[in-house]
Design brief:
- The structure is a single chain.
- The protein has 375 residues and is of the alpha/beta class.
- Helix content is 35%, strand content 15%.
- The longest helix has 16 residues, at 282-297.
Length: 375
């Protein structure tokens, strides 16, 4: 039932599906957006949230959002709201309580309950002993317990990169000058996935170059038809522009369906500079992923904070690589792959290749001084 203040008009409560188009223009005064950590671009949730907010704005209404902790990098409605709150967006009331830090593996049951009391506040009906028992259940993934019980934003199971660590390595004040020595990573697609060209400096700073004011990551438009294809001529021109602007020591390219273009770049810039790098080869790819892992752990890597690059990096999942025992040092090897959620990772793979290129490219050839030529 809906009771309005003046008692003269009847209100209406209506549950809706995620069909944003069918909601456009609906005159509503209030919308409840529930479990918005699950509302993502992939399932239409982001479009629906924008439509509902637009409709309530026209009626001078409001929206009310409830959610569990979101998974960073999914670009969910909850994640966007969290970022808006951090930036102090006007008109937004934000209330979120996290449990204080506690080591789930070593803490006692009483210590866990003390942390949970903070997260659950005055929710007296919650049985904290039951929650602790569920946390202790070996079948409960640690990251799930952290997100759903302690309200900590955590990466999902199997994700390759910790969002908090990636965020800590963002360096917005680094400007890579023209002529700088860089490595490049290229991961191309035909129509469905993204195509990305990512660069890395000699000291491990990842960045997405811009050509004519546009970052070198190409996405399939949301309204693209079945016959849409990547703009190969524009991508070719962008690669040439990056080579002209910087001193490229090495470019590693994932070859599927881009062999012709890669061969042409090798002819233009040298077959010792432009190299094929098949990411489907476990031995080679696991070594590159291991280098990326180590750079993250040792914090010898930084990045420019590009939103698409971040989204793709945080979408990468970790999978065991089956490498012969005599080809390893005894450690389990991993490669980075697309997760079950189907989120794009192409720019993330290009970043792995860019770091590998920058760390393995030869030193620039020394130039002979003019006076020495006369000696």
């Amino acid at each position: 039932r809906s009771y309005l203040r003046d008692g003269k008009r009847r209100g209406k409560l209506e549950p809706v599906t995620a069909a944003a188009g069918s909601r456009e223009g609906q005159p509503i005064t209030d919308a409840i957006l529930d479990e918005t950590h699950l509302w993502t671009p992939r399932n239409g949730g982001v479009k629906l949230a924008r439509t509902l907010r637009r409709n309530t704005a026209k009626m001078d209404g409001r929206t009310f959002e409830t959610t569990n902790s979101f998974e960073p990098g999914e670009q969910s409605v909850a994640e966007a709201t969290h970022k808006a709150a951090e930036h102090g967006t006007a008109g937004l009331f934000y209330d979120a309580v996290e449990a204080p830090p506690v080591d789930i593996d070593t803490a006692s049951d009483e210590e866990l309950k003390a942390a949970l009391r903070v997260a659950y506040g005055d929710s007296w009906w919650v049985d904290l002993d039951r929650i602790v028992a569920d946390i202790r259940d070996p079948d409960t993934p640690r990251e799930d317990a952290e997100r759903f019980f302690f309200n900590w934003n955590r990466k999902g199971g199997g994700k390759a990169v910790d969002p908090a660590l990636w965020a800590a390595l963002e360096q917005l004040d680094i400007v890579v000058p023209d002529g700088a020595r860089i490595g490049l990573g290229f991961d191309g697609s035909i129509s469905q996935d993204a195509t990305a060209l990512v660069a890395c400096t000699e000291d491990g700073h990842l960045f997405v170059p811009e050509v004519d004011g546009r970052p070198t990551i190409w996405l399939r438009p949301t309204d693209a038809g079945r016959d849409w294809r990547m703009p190969r001529s524009s991508i070719n021109a962008a690669v040439e522009a990056v080579f002209e602007r910087y001193s490229v020591g090495r470019m590693l390219c994932d070859p599927p369906r881009w062999q012709t273009e890669i061969e042409r770049w090798a002819e233009l810039f040298g077959d010792e500079v432009v190299l094929f790098f098949d990411t489907n080869q476990p031995k080679r790819m696991s070594a590159a992923c291991d280098r990326f892992d180590s750079a993250l752990a040792e914090q010898t890597l930084s990045h420019d904070g590009n939103q698409l690059l971040t989204s793709h990096v945080l979408a990468m999942t970790r999978r065991k690589a089956y490498v012969k025992a005599d080809e390893t040092d005894g450690r389990t090897r991993y490669i980075f792959t697309k997760g079950d959620d189907g989120r794009k990772i192409d720019a993330g793979i290009a970043a792995v290749l860019a770091l590998e290129a920058a760390m393995t490219m030869p030193a620039p050839e020394a130039t002979t001084p003019f006076f020495a030529a006369w000696a």
